[in-house]
Amino acid sequence: MSFMVHVTLREIEKSFRNHKKFVKRVGEYAPSQRKMMLVFKNHQAGTEHFFLPAFRETDQLLRMPLRPEHLAYEMGKEWIVGELLWHLGKKLNADAVIVDLRAGLSELSSPLLFDPRVNRIIVTTPSGQSLAGTKLVLEQTGKVVRALKNNEGNDESQFPSLILSMIKEDLKNIPDIEYVKEQLMNLLLLEDNDTDALLGTEILLTSLFDENLLYLKNLETTLDKLDSTDMHQLMTRIADEKSFKSEQETLGDQGDIQNKSKPQRIKNIEKLKNVTEEYEFAESGRGKEFFEIQPLRSFAQKFQRIMPVAVIMGAKGSGKTFIYLQLSRIKVWKEFLKVFDMENENNGFIYPLIFPRNLQDDAKKIIRNCHENIPIPFNLITQDEIRARMDEKKGSGGTNETVWKDFWLKLMADALSCGKEDHPLKAIQKTLAEKDQKVIFQIDGLEDHFQYIRNDPVEQTAIRALCQSVTEALQELPDNRIGLIIFIRKDIVRSAIKQNFGQFEARYKAFELKWNWEAAIRLVLWLVNDVAELKDYVDTGPKPERRLEKLWGLKLGKPGSREAYTVNWIISALSDFNGQIQARDIVRLLRFASEEALEGKAYPGRLLSPTAIKHALDPCSREKIKEIKEEMTILVDIFKKLETIPGQDQQIPFDKDTLGITLDEIETLNLNVARKFHRPVPHCWKWACPSFRHL
After folding, report:
1. CATH assignment of 294-511, among 2.60.40, 3.40.1000, 1.10.10, 3.40.50
2. pLDDT for 221-240, tens place per residue?
C-alpha cells in the first residue's frame, strides 16, 4: 500500500532529537491511524492509502512554526526527514512511502531530494522555465552521485528517473523535443559514471499531453480520468519496477532451486551450454527444433494457398540460415504450414539451390537428404559450378538486368534438367506440369558471391535482377508451380535497389527477421524449456520477462538491490537504439554465461549468477566485432587502428589526430557501422575493442 499519515510537522519536531522515542510513538499511533485510510479502487483490487498532510489548519500554512530545514540543520541530521518517514511506513507495514515535493530546489524539498537513499522521480515540461529548474536540480543531484561514487567506491546513490511530460502527440518527434532530450540525457549520464550501470534502466521517459486532465473536479473523477491516460500507464510501469518482488528469491533457502544438489546444478548448466552451442551458429546444422516467430507465421499465412515467392531480409545473426536449414529439414511446404497449424495440400518440394560456403557436415547432410527427397529427375549443380558461372557472368561486366534475370532462371532450369530450352521459365513450368509437381527453390549465402556490392554496379544489377525481376516474373505466372525463397542481408538489398527501396521493403516487411525484446525473451524460454528441457527453471505466467527469474533472477543482484532488472539489462546491452536484437547475440550470451557459471559459485534462487551474466558481455562484444570485420571488410583497417590505441586516448569526446583516423574513415564508419547499429558512431566503437565498451 502507498501511504501518507496524519502527523504534523510539530509532532515530528517534538521527538526528532530522539529517533527511538518517535518510532515508539508511531507504533502507538498506528492502530488509530488505520481507521482513517482511503481505498483507491482499480480494475483489479482496492489499494489502501494513508495520508500525511503538511498542515491541518490554514494558520499552520501561513505561519508555519516549524519547517523541514529546522530538522536538518544539525550535523548528522541532514536526512532525518526521510528516516522518519521510513520508520513511519515500516510501522504501518506500508509497501511504499510516496512524497510529493514542490517544484524546484527549496528548503522544503532539499532534505528529501538529495537524500541518496530515496528513489527520485523528476517531472518536467518542455517549457523553458521548467527545463531551467530541472537542469539545476540534475546538476546538483549529480554532485551527490559523484561524491558517493568517489567515497571508497561507494555507489549507494541512485540515478533519478526523469519524465518529460505535456508533449503533444504530433510534436513528440520534432527536432526541438529531441534536442531537449539530448540535453537532459547529458546531465543524467555523468562523464565519470560507468554507463554500464544504467543498462536496462529507462531514466528518461516521455508522457503525452492529455486535455482530459485540464479540468479535475474531485478525487473520484480524477482517478477515473487518469485510468486511461498515457501518464497512468507510465507511472504504473515505474511503480511495478520499484516494487517488484521475486517470489522465487523470497523463498530463500526453502526454494526448489536451493535444494538442487551441486552435481545436478552443474549438469543443468552443461545442458544449457550444449544447447546454446548447437543453436548459436545455424551453419552447424545441429539445431533440430523449429522456433515459431511472428515473421514466419506471417510468411506461412501469406502463402498458405499459393506458391511462396518472397525475399526474407535480416541482419547477420537474425536466423536466415537457420530457417533455410529447417525448411530443408522438413522438405515439403505443407509440413512447414503444419508447424503453424495451417492445413494445405500444397506438396511443393523444397529445393536448396544456393547455400552458404561455411556449412558444416551436419548441415550439408540436411541439404543432401532434402535433394534426395525430390520426386522428379534433377541435375545437382555443385556450389563450385554455381560460383564459376557467377564469376564468369560478373567478369563480362554486364549491367543489363534482363541478362541477369535470364541467368538466374537458367540456373533454376538447369537444376531441373530442362535448361536447354530457349525459355527457361516456360521449360520449368512445363516439366513440373507434366510431372504434376511443384518445387520451391531456396537461395542463401549470396554475400559469399557478392562481396563488393556496395561499389560494384555489376553485382548490384545481379542482386536487383534476382530480388525484383525474377520474383515478379514468378508472381505473374498463371498456375505457378515454381516457388522461390531468397534469404538475404538487408544491407545487400539496399545497396542493389537504390531507387524505390522503400516500396520494395514494404512488400516484404511482414517477413523481415527482426527481433524485439519480447521475441528475444520467447527465444530464451523456448531454448530453456523446450530444447534443453530445463522446465524447473521456467515459471508459468502471462508476462514472459517474469517467467525467467529462476534462470537468471529478477535483478543482477538481490531482489531489493539497486541493480538493473536482468531482462532489461540483457536487452539493453545487446540491442541497438531501436530496440532490435539479433537472435545469435542472445543465444551467444547464454552460452558464455553458462561457461562462466560452470566456473563460478552458485547463486541463491537462480541457475546463472549475476556475475556470469555480466562477464558474458565482453566475449559477446569480441565475437560481434569479429563478425562485423568478416561482413564489412572495408572496416578491418579502421578497427585495427582503434584496437591499438593506448588506453589513455580511448575516451569520448576524442581527437581524430590522436586516434590517427582520417575524415574519410570517419565517414566510412558513419555510413557502415552507424547504419548497422542505428546508433551514433562513437557508441558503436565500443564493439571494436573491449576497453571502448565502457565509454
Report:
1. 3.40.50
2. 787 788 778 777 778 777 76
